Prior knowledge:
The chain has 117 residues and is an alpha/beta fold. Helix content is 31%, strand content 17%. It has helices at 5-9, 30-39, 80-83, 99-104, 106-116; strands at residues 19-23, 43-48, 67-71, 89-92. The chain has a four-stranded parallel sheet with strand order 3-2-1-4, with helices on one face.
Amino acid sequence: MKHDAKNAKSDSGGMSRRHVLVVGGAGYVGSVLVPYLLSRGASVTCAHLLLYGNGPLMLTYWGRPDFRFVNADLRDAACYGSILEGVTDVVLLASLVGDPITKRYPEQSRDINVEGT
Ligand SMILES: NC(=O)c1ccc[n+]([C@@H]2O[C@H](COP(=O)([O-])OP(=O)(O)OC[C@H]3O[C@@H](n4cnc5c(N)ncnc54)[C@H](O)[C@@H]3O)[C@@H](O)[C@H]2O)c1
């Protein structure tokens, strides 16, 4: 999506008009990106399929009006209609990451990392 530099510059945090959807936001990279975006004033929706039990991390932001968590599979296109409402930017991090897991689960890796994406 197009970056709105004019709006981004006009608020104190720099991102208060942004609503960023972070798909896979409870993962390794997302656990750094989500608090950064919140600290800059953005609203964040994290859509994540909790494969590794990293749900408790999301409790850090639970109850914040500028944060929403959706337990959703990247491949479930139907549910993304409502998830994308009001979203200005999307960061896609969800995937099966690294050689060991993609070699062990080649079909699922293709399904998620290639087709799903
Ligand atoms: N970690 C690194 O050093 C690094 C370096 C370069 C690039 N990247 C890239 O950044 C992205 C994120 O990497 P990461 O290290 O945070 O990985 P991660 O495994 O920690 O996070 C990815 C998350 O995606 C989730 N997920 C898997 N399938 C899903 C699905 N179908 N729907 C929704 N969620 C799903 C998993 O539960 C997982 O927690 C990847 O594309 C990776 O290749 C990572």
